[in-house]
Amino acid sequence: MNAPVPVVIDCDPGHDDALAIMLAAGDPAVDLLAITTVAGNQTLAKTTLNARRVCTVAGITGVPIAAGCDRPLVQPLRVADDVHGESGLDGPRFPEPTVDVVPEHAVDLIHRILTRHPEPVTLVPTAPLTNIALLLTRYPEDAARIREIVLMGGSTERGNRTPAAEFNMYADPEAADIVFRSGVPVTMCGLNVTHQALATPEVVARLEGLGTELGRTCAGLLTYFGSTYRRLWGFEHPPLHDPVAVARVIDPAIVTCVPANVVVELRGEYTRGATVVDPHRYLDRPVNAQVAVTLDTGLFWDRLVASVARLGA
Ligand code: BDR
Ligand code: CA
Question: Are 87 and 221 in contact (CB under 8 A)?
Answer without folding.
Answer: no
